[in-house]
Amino acid sequence: MRETPDVRPYDALLLLSFGGPEGPEDVVPFLENVTRGRGIPRERLQEVGRHYYLFGGVSPINEQNLRLIGALRDDFADNGVGLPVYWGNRNWAPYLYETLEQIAADGHRRVLTLVTSAYASYSGCRQYREDLAAALDRLRTERGVELRVDKLRHYFNHPGFVRPMADGVLSALEQLPEDVRDGAHIAFSTHSIPTSSADTSGPEGGAYVAQHRDVARLVAAAVREATGVDRPWELVYQSRSGAAHIPWLEPDICDHLEALHEAGAPAVVMAPIGFVSDHMEVLYDLDTEAAAKAKELGLPAVRSATVGADPGFVAGLRELVLERAATERGEHPERCALGALGPSHDVCRPGCCPGRVWKPVVAGAEAAPAAAEEARA
Question: What is residue 245's DSSP assignment?
Answer without folding.
Answer: T
